[in-house]
User: Which sequence fits this backbone?
């Protein structure tokens, strides 16, 4: 996260990361991705996530040290930690309830909960979001 394009609200700087499509093809094992799914947030951490992010945001020396179940970010004395916490806090303030944050490893049991929110992906039994919209449009035009 950087301060480029950040919001300034009440003397706070809120970073604004790029918004990605909810598709598995946008994920990379070299990074970490935050998904706001409404009542819950997921921070998926790839196996090859950068050492800087692991140290300065998650407070662990390496990926193997990342706990299987982690539900809050440590408040570290780093710029990266402050930016990440500011952004997640800002997202939470937009709701009348407090969404739980799940920090999940690539092989976590919660990975399926994360992946089921990838609405841009087509599965064997369901259309992608885009295909669904096209289907609705075709039905309306009949």
Assistant:
């Amino acid at each position: 996260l950087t301060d480029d394009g950040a919001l300034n609200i009440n003397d706070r700087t809120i970073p604004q990361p790029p918004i990605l499509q909810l598709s598995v093809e946008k994920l990379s094992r070299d990074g970490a991705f935050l998904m706001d799914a409404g009542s819950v947030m997921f921070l998926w951490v790839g196996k090859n996530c950068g050492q800087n992010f692991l140290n300065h945001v998650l407070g662990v020396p390496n990926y193997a040290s990342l706990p299987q179940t982690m539900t809050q970010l440590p408040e570290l004395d780093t710029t990266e930690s402050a930016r990440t916490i500011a952004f997640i806090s800002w997202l939470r303030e937009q709701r009348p309830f407090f969404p739980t944050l799940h920090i999940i490893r690539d092989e976590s049991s919660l990975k399926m909960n994360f992946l089921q929110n990838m609405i841009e992906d087509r599965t064997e039994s369901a259309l992608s979001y885009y295909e669904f919209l096209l289907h609705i449009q075709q039905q309306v035009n009949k």
